[in-house]
Design brief:
The longest helix has 34 residues, at 82-115. This protein has 2 domains: 2-252, Hydantoin permease; 255-295, no CATH class. The protein is mainly α. Helices cover 69% and strands 8% of the residues.
């Protein structure tokens, strides 16, 4: 009985976790790492604000998906007319296409670096695999399980790293007090734009409907849509916060400001960083310390 309840609880997380995985892409890793490396813990409050508003919009979208048989775009067409639905639909398509282009490129580069092969090959392979999966009858159930496993793996990895690097608790709480350090506005805007994703919230209604269809339920049935949405966005915020905290603890404490990342042949990670040495500002490749290595 307890095992069944556990499985059902994980199933409830499905739509919200998929949205979290959708929003937490390469851009989120880059932006949150740079926020922590450049400004320590002082921008931690931005994550709380962005997650709060993202949660409101995803919950709204989840309720729409839960209580309607028609899709969100169909409802918009009925309310605003054909032009409104086409305008929003094309906008969502362009945003999703741009977002996926970044994800595909990031994935191709990562796998290419790991296997010492051409990244373009992996971009084509994984995009082709994604298209093929669309034709599976149980596509949603498969996607839910894969995304849940990946998000839990990422969360476990980030939290484990945070435990190992031992960030100062007092500094973390101080970062929850709103402040805007000099030259931080650009990063704040970038993070809010990438985290407070209206397209991600829009997609939530479709995920809720697919979940309901996979369970054979009618519109209005199943009362976990908002809970799933809330938990997914909380997980998104937790992952973002932990990445920022790790970057602040490991990189900012050494004065390393991240501009770009490179991987050496030995697997070591290097950052193109600016730092002050002998009274002069120098730009050079700096090896990022591995928190798991014993001194």
């Amino acid at each position: 009985m307890n095992n069944k309840k556990h499985i059902n609880w994980l199933s409830v997380l499905g739509p919200g976790v998929i949205t979290a995985a959708l929003v937490f892409g390469p851009s989120k890793m880059t932006i949150t790492s740079k926020m922590g490396a450049d400004f320590s813990y002082s921008l931690l409050w931005v994550i709380v604000v962005a997650i709060f508003f993202m949660m409101i919009f995803t919950n709204m979208s989840a309720r729409i998906g839960q209580h309607n048989r028609e899709s969100l775009l169909t409802l918009i067409r009925k309310k605003t007319g054909r032009f409104g639905s086409i305008f929003i639909g094309v906008g969502v398509f362009l945003v999703a296409t741009s977002f996926q282009a970044g994800n595909s490129t990031g994935l191709g580069i990562a796998i290419g670096e790991a296997t010492d092969s051409n990244p373009k090959i992996w971009i084509v392979v994984f995009n082709g695999l994604g298209i093929v999966l669309l034709f599976f009858r149980s596509f949603y159930k498969l996607m839910e399980k894969v995304m849940l496993a990946l998000v839990l793996l990422m969360l476990f990895s980030f939290v484990t790293t945070a435990i190992v690097v031992k960030p100062p608790i007092a500094a973390i709480f101080s970062g929850l007090m709103p402040s805007l350090p000099d030259k931080s506005v650009g990063l704040v805007v970038a993070f809010i734009a990438s985290c407070f994703s209206l397209v991600g919230a829009f997609y939530q209604s479709y995920l809720v409907q697919e979940k309901r269809k996979s369970q054979g339920l009618e519109a209005g049935a199943g009362g976990h849509a908002q809970l799933s949405s809330t938990m997914g966005i909380v997980i998104l915020g937790l992952m973002s916060a932990v990445v920022l905290i790790c970057a602040a603890t490991v990189l900012n404490s050494q004065g390393i400001k991240v501009n770009s990342i490179a991987v050496g042949q030995d697997g070591s990670i290097y950052s193109l960083a600016r730092f002050v040495h002998g009274g002069e500002e120098i730009e050079d490749l700096i090896k990022i310390p591995n928190p798991f290595e014993q001194n």
